[in-house]
């Protein structure tokens, strides 16, 4: 009660329903949650401040979905306006402690304190925040070290090393929120054949990647879960650096499918985003292991185009960073059969496995953490045996900040029902941060 949007509209049941209905009308975004709902009567307005979601399956972790980007409710008035003026998509209207003042896509975004914030402004210490997009993360880290920036968020190893060594700079590092990997489109030749996927996996120079790209800032990844995660399956091992196993598979495949091969090697396209010095270095390392067995053609695309082509299945092999959600069943979006088909697929590799789906939905329905863990460990085993992902390292999300920046990780969750203690909230998960309680010492 009493929550208002930046434009003065009320956050009520009608606003929530309109927000979700707008998502479900979008041909791309709807893929993320359409399957979660029954076909009809998806939402019911109980009263002005209560909405009932009618889900297709039991989902003990629905609150995690509702707390994700999909659940960041937008102003109903803004939704009406943006339908007639698409330029307004650069000026979203929410309910938070800061409101967007200006934005230049791919360059910068400025936000200012929301003086009408529904919780009051006593605990909002910054007057404004300016976010800049730095295409060279190492340069961004150097700008922080020289005092030109206050905070940098990065997963780039060169930048992390710079931040670690900079005077007057502190870092908070998180290896639990994302994985770096290569992946294959299993819906089209040559990687619709598991032999081609296995050959690429076996010939990957993973140790070289870990040493030259990770540079000691990341640890090797065998699956989508860090060894410190309760959902990690220690029995799953990523196979790589075994080129002796690749040759016979390629020879057998080319003998049976010669039109996908040239000179005894499998033809493949490696797509990646750029221009980027780091991405080029990654491509060189991966290609070095693959080229004895594959004819590698590289395709560099701007990141937005790259993402679109992956989503629409116009790719064969790509490097990617994903997974690492705090709530494990959020990974259903990226792995289920329901998101693997159609013109646009969020299950990028387009691998469908009913057994894997059964485990995913078993985990989603379970309230007992032991049951969730067992199911997600089974998911990791199946992902490993399907050879569509080549896990390389756990991403190291590094938050670097000037020593004058205070309370950058002071966010707390609601009090525990038993102890009353308020847990500290992860402050740089997958590069996402919270700055409303941050202040700068003068």
Describe this structure in words.
With 442 residues, this protein is an alpha+beta fold. 30% of the residues lie in helices and 19% in strands. The protein is built from 13 helices and 16 strands. It has helices spanning 13-25, 62-66, 76-84, 137-145, 157-165, 194-202, 206-214, 243-256, 277-290, 303-311, 332-335, 354-365, 369-386; strands at 43-47, 50-53, 98-104, 108-113, 128-132, 151-154, 169-174, 179-184, 261-262, 265-273, 294-301, 317-322, 389-394, 397-402, 405-406, 439-440. The strands form 5 sheets. Strands 8, 9, 10, 11, 12 and 13 form a 6-stranded mixed β-sheet that branches. The chain has a 3-stranded antiparallel β-sheet with strand order 3-4-5, with no helix packed on it. Helix 9 links the parallel strand 10 (265-273) and strand 11 (294-301). Helix 4 (137-145) packs parallel to helix 5 and helix 12 runs antiparallel to helix 13. The longest helix has 18 residues, at 369-386. The chain is globular. It starts with 12 loop residues before the first helix and ends with a strand. The model has no long low-confidence stretch (mean pLDDT 94).
In which range does the helix fraction lie?
Answer: 25-40%
Order of helices and strands: HEEHHEEEHEHEEHHHEEHEHEHHHEEEE
Weakly predicted, low-confidence segments: none
Nearest-integer average pLDDT: 94
How far the N terminus sits from the C terminus, by CA atoms, comes to 37 Å
Beta-strand content: 15-25%
Structural class: alpha+beta
What would the principal axes of the Cα set say about the shape?
Answer: globular
Radius of gyration: 23 Å
Number of separate strands: 16
How would you classify the quaternary structure? Answer: single chain
If helices are DSSP runs of H or I spanning 4 or more residues, what is the number of helices? 13
The main sheet comes to:
6 strands, mixed
């Amino acid at each position: 009660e009493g929550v208002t949007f930046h434009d003065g509209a009320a956050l009520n049941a009608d606003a929530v329903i309109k927000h979700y209905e707008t998502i479900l009308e979008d041909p791309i975004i709807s893929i993320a949650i359409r399957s979660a709902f029954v076909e009809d009567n998806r939402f019911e307005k109980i009263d002005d401040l209560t909405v009932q979601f009618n889900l297709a399956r039991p989902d003990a972790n629905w609150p995690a979905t509702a707390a994700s980007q999909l659940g960041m409710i937008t102003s109903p008035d803004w939704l009406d306006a943006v339908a007639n003026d698409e330029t307004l998509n650069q000026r979203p209207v929410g309910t938070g402690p800061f409101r967007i003042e200006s934005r230049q896509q791919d360059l910068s975004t400025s936000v200012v304190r929301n003086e009408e914030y529904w919780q009051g402004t006593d605990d909002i210490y910054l007057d404004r925040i300016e976010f800049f997009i730095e295409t060279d993360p190492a340069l961004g880290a150097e700008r922080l070290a020289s005092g030109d920036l206050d905070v940098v968020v990065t997963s780039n190893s060169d930048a992390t090393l710079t931040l670690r060594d900079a005077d007057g700079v502190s870092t908070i590092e998180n290896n639990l929120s994302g994985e770096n990997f290569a992946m294959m489109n299993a819906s089209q030749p040559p990687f619709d054949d598991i032999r081609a996927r296995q050959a690429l996996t076996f010939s990957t120079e993973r140790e070289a990647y870990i040493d030259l790209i990770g540079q000691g800032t990341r640890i090797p990844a065998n699956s989508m879960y860090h060894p410190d995660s309760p959902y990690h399956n220690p029995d799953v091992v990523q196979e790589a650096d075994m080129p002796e196993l690749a040759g016979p598979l390629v020879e057998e495949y080319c003998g049976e499918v010669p039109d996908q091969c040239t000179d005894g090697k499998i033809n493949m396209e490696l797509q990646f985003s750029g221009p980027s010095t780091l991405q080029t270095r990654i491509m060189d390392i991966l290609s070095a292991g693959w080229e004895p067995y594959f004819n590698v053609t590289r395709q560099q695309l701007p990141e937005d185009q790259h993402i679109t082509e992956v989503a629409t299945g116009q790719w064969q092999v790509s490097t990617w960073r994903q997974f690492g959600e705090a709530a494990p069943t959020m990974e259903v979006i990226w792995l289920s059969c329901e998101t693997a088909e159609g013109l646009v697929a969020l299950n990028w590799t387009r691998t469908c496995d009913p057994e894997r789906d059964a485990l995913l939905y078993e985990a989603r329905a379970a309230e007992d953490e032991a049951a969730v863990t067992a199911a997600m460990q089974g998911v990791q085993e199946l992902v490993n045996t399907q050879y569509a992902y080549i896990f390389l390292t756990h991403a190291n999300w590094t938050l670097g900040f000037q020593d004058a920046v205070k309370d950058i990780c002071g966010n707390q969750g609601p009090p525990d029902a038993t102890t009353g203690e308020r847990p500290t909230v992860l402050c740089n998960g997958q590069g996402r941060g919270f700055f409303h309680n941050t202040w700068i010492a003068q």
